[in-house]
Amino acid sequence: MRKTTRYPVQGANPLWQMYRTVSFWKVMKNFIVIQLARYTPFPAWKNWMYRTFLRMEVGHETAVALMVMMDTMFPELIKIGKNSVIGYNTTILAHEYLVEEYRLGEVIIGDRVLIGANTTILPGVTIGDGAIVAAGTVVHKDVAPGAFVGGNPMQVIRAGGLADH
């Protein structure tokens, strides 16, 4: 089970009411910063932008590839450890808007984690230190430290154990 906090809404769906949830100006600023970072070719610059303008925690020597899409509404709920790689065109979400509620949850990515290209990480998950997530995976639950996971639905390909690699 993902660790999210649920917020029921009345009337129209929460996406229709999103600016009751989060400031329009915050979303606009975040969107601009994220779009600039998506095309920035230097990992150190990206990390500085994420830390400075989005209040994300990003560890030393973490590399976020081209076109990675961070959550535009709640990027401050994303924490990435040191020396990790976030692959091309990955999406990391800290919110989800449903029909009658919205949910928020921290995304915690450990140290030395490899996230393959085109992965989607849903709110409220923790990916343990040394884990590997195969390209194209939808991460819908926690990943144990040292585990190798992949697919949709996500399956454990090799169980955890940091000594394994």
TrEMBL record:
- Keyword Lyase assigned to the entry: answer is no
Q: Which Gene3D superfamilies match?
A: Hexapeptide repeat proteins (2.160.10.10)
What InterPro entries does this protein map onto?
Answer: Hexapep, Hexapep_transf_CS, Trans_hexapeptide_repeat, Trimer_LpxA-like_sf
Q: Name one GO molecular function term.
A: transferase activity
Coiled-coil ranges from the UniProt annotation = none
- Classify the source by domain of life: Bacteria
**PROSITE patterns documented for this protein:** HEXAPEP_TRANSFERASES
> Does the UniProt entry include the keyword Secreted?
no
Keyword annotations of the record: Repeat, Transferase
> Under what name is this protein listed?
Acetyltransferase
Q: What is the organism field in this record? A: Brevibacillus parabrevis
Query: Lineage, please?
Result: Bacteria, Bacillati, Bacillota, Bacilli, Bacillales
